[in-house]
Amino acid sequence: MTGKRGRPSAGDKAERHERIVDLVVAILASEGYDSVTFDRIAADAHVAKRTLYGEYGDRLGLVRAAVRRQHAYADGAWQSANGVRAASVAVVSHLLADEAVAVHRALIGAGGADAALAAEFYDEGPGRAQRFLSEHLPADAVVPADLLFAALLGEPHRRRLLGLDPAPSTELVAAHVDRTLKVLGL
Length: 186
Prior knowledge:
- The protein is mainly α.
- It folds into 2 domains: 7-66, Homeodomain-like (Arc Repressor Mutant, subunit A), CATH 1.10.10; 71-186.
- 70% of the residues lie in helices and 0% in strands.
- The chain contains 9 helices and no strands.
- It has helices spanning 10-31, 38-45, 49-56, 59-70, 83-95, 98-111, 115-136, 145-161, 170-183.
- Helix 6 (98-111) packs across helix 7 (115-136) and helix 7 packs across helix 8 (145-161).
């Protein structure tokens, strides 16, 4: 490892985090969960294993960081999403994107053999999306967030997971969200 000595700046830490998450996502998408190891990530990202353990704890922590990125709409600017439509568009756009679908495929394959991974993925993935949608549902909505999430993702997500459809355009996402919200009375 080469570079500056001493504590990294906040910018350096953010850049390192993105580099690590990019690497985890790439490995998950191309080789699967079993290929995500601390030795591999440390070597390929040019960081010490001690840094990885300190920041991510374990392999689940690395995977959690990759999954959280798929749900970035729940952080920052999207926290101020104006209403259920904007929140729904954010969820559908992010979760039908190529990167999110690739990570989902990898974790479904591994989750069956690892109950902790499955629970972590669900909480950070679908659970987080449902909590986000719940925050944006109208107070008088009779449709719960889990049903809205299922209706929004359902068949389009299944078709993406199976490789039957490409990532939808912004226009297709908006049309799907509008149709779903109309059917659900939202």
